[in-house]
Design a protein that fits this description.
mainly alpha, 71% helix, 0% strand
Length: 119
C-alpha cells in the first residue's frame, strides 16, 4: 500500500533530536494516512514502530533519573553521542523479539476492530 510508508513514520522520530518536532511529524503522517487499506503486515509494523518509540522514550526517561557523573572521559562522550541510537536499537530489538510491553499487539487488535467496520 503506497499511502502507508513506515520508513517515513520511523524517520519522524529517529532522525529528530527535538521531541516536539518528532511528535508533530508523526502526528501529521498518521493523520494523512488511510489505514483502512493497510495490509495486516503493514498495520502490525506500524504498531511495532509505535511500541519501539514508546520503549525508547521510556529508556530516555529512566536515564534522567540517574544522577549525572562529573567524569569527563572520552568514553562518556562517545556514549552520550550514540546513546539515542543505542536506545532505539534496544527498543526495536525488544519489540521484534516479542519481549516488548505488548502495546503493539493491543494497538494492532484495536485498529483491526476499528478499521474492519470501514471496509
Amino acid at each position: 500500500m503506497s499511502s502507508l510508508n513506515l520508513d517515513s513514520i520511523t524517520s519522524a522520530y529517529t532522525n529528530s533530536s527535538n521531541y516536539s518536532e518528532a511528535v508533530s511529524a508523526l502526528k501529521n503522517k498518521l493523520e494523512s494516512t488511510d489505514y483502512s487499506k493497510a495490509t495486516d503486515d503493514e498495520l502490525m509494523e506500524a504498531c511495532k514502530s509505535f511500541e519501539a518509540y514508546f520503549i525508547k522514550e521510556a529508556f530516555k526517561g529512566m536515564e534522567k533519573m540517574i544522577p549525572d557523573n562529573d567524569e569527563d572521559s572520552t568514553a562518556s562522550k562517545y556514549v552520550d553521542m550514540f546513546k539515542d541510537n543505542l536506545y532505539q536499537e534496544y527498543a526495536e530489538s525488544a519489540t521484534e523479539r516479542g519481549d516488548g510491553i505488548g502495546i503493539a499487539k493491543m494497538l494492532y487488535e484495536q485498529m483491526k476492530r476499528n478499521y474492519a467496520d470501514s471496509l
